[in-house]
Amino acid sequence: MTLRKICILGAGTLGSRVALQSAISGFTVSIFDLKQASLDSALFTMQKILRQLVRGGTLTESQVPEILQRIQPTLDLPEALKGADLVNESVTEDVAIKKSLWAEVGKLAESHTWLTTNTSYLLPSQFAEETGSPSRFCAFHFHDVFYSRVVDIMPHPGTDPTLIGVLEKLGRKLNQVPVIVRKENPGYLFNTMLMALLGAAGKLITREVGSIEDIDKSWMVNFHMPMGPFGILDSIGLDTAWHVTHKMSDSASQAFAAHLKTYIDQGKLGEKTGEGFYTYPNPRYREPDFIL
Ligand SMILES: NC(=O)c1ccc[n+]([C@@H]2O[C@H](COP(=O)([O-])OP(=O)(O)OC[C@H]3O[C@@H](n4cnc5c(N)ncnc54)[C@H](O)[C@@H]3O)[C@@H](O)[C@H]2O)c1
After folding, report:
1. Ligand 1, residues 79, 91, 181, 236: which to mutate, most atoms within 8 A of Cβ?
2. How far is the CA of 239 from the centre of ligand 1 (A)?
3. Fewer CB in 10 Å around end: N or C, the chain?
4. Domain coordinates of the chain in residue numbers?
């Protein structure tokens, strides 16, 4: 079956990016959120990314209006799902929120619609039943979409194997590199490795072993990377990182979650709010003299 319309649930950091790439790749896109403010800020983010892509020569100025026209932001879930060939859910990383939304989607989605989640650390089997159609459900997990272009395809034991092929093809069409996670694993492939790095950086900061800048510099210089673990955390969102760490029972994760919470309580969620460990749009680690 040819996919034409993609429905994105959640217009935050990731939902806005997946929606934009889907429109760039020629799909009709609906993007649903509970809050008008999220839809407005998603549009702002998309316009910013489009300007960067035009500046970088990936797109031409004349393509921009037609790309934006393909995106329909909405607060109306039935409208968003109408005629959708595939859903990708990017709402808050909280199992209760996801379960309740999927239960609603399960009742409303058309019988041909493939159902996917972009969860970072939960497993698709944790809410497959809620979809009402577990065989049509699979994790389809993006990273940053434009800069980090791996997309994980992670079925749960009841996923229809046809969907894996559909998602591999779709992943390539969305300009991503698809990888298949053969067994359900919290964190897929890359995030499992990333968690080890971020957890180690968290331990270093909560035990006051080094400064944020020096920890980042150590990683950036040795691995020739454009950002270190705290720059990465800012781009992920400190709230999303907290949702993951505060559920881990070990004392190091609990200490790091408490540390993240002090930033969250001040409204410092990272790049999306203009401040986290660094301030944006010009964080210190992007300045040429940072690693000197
Ligand atoms: N931030 C990342 O780098 C990243 C990367 C890959 C995957 N993810 C995953 O994507 C999902 C979203 O993360 P994010 O960083 O975009 O979060 P975010 O906080 O930026 O956005 C979440 C959005 O979901 C909306 N929302 C909450 N409940 C909703 C509901 N019931 N119906 C519709 N919208 C609802 C919120 O209003 C918000 O706009 C999470 O599962 C996360 O693990 C995040």
Report:
1. 91
2. 10
3. C
4. 5-180, 191-285
Contacts for 233 with CB less than 8 Å, ≥ 6 apart: 198, 201, 241, 260, 270, 276, 277
Q: What is the 291 CA–ligand 1 centroid distance (Å)?
A: 33
pLDDT, mean of residues 7-17: 97
Q: 16 pLDDT exceeds 90? A: yes
- Report the CATH number of the 5-180 domain: 3.40.50.720
Atom of ligand 1 nearest to the CA of 237: 1
* Coil/strand/helix, residue 151: strand
| Tally of residues, the chain | 292
Helices (H) and strands (E) in the chain, counts: 11, 8
Q: How far is the CA of 98 from the centre of ligand 1 (A)?
A: 10
Q: Closest Cα to residue 115, out of 89, 140, 87? A: 87
- Residue 122 pLDDT > 90: yes
How distant, in Å, are the alpha carbons of 59, 113, 156, 262, 270 from that of 235?
24, 31, 28, 17, 6
Q: Residues with Cβ within 6 A of ligand 1?
A: 9-15, 32-35, 38, 90-93, 97, 101, 118-120, 141-143, 236-237, 240
Fold matches, 5-180 and 191-285: no
pLDDT digits (tens, 9 = 90+) for 219-254: 999 999 999 999 999 999 999 999 989 989 999 999
CATH architecture of 191-285: Orthogonal Bundle (1.10)
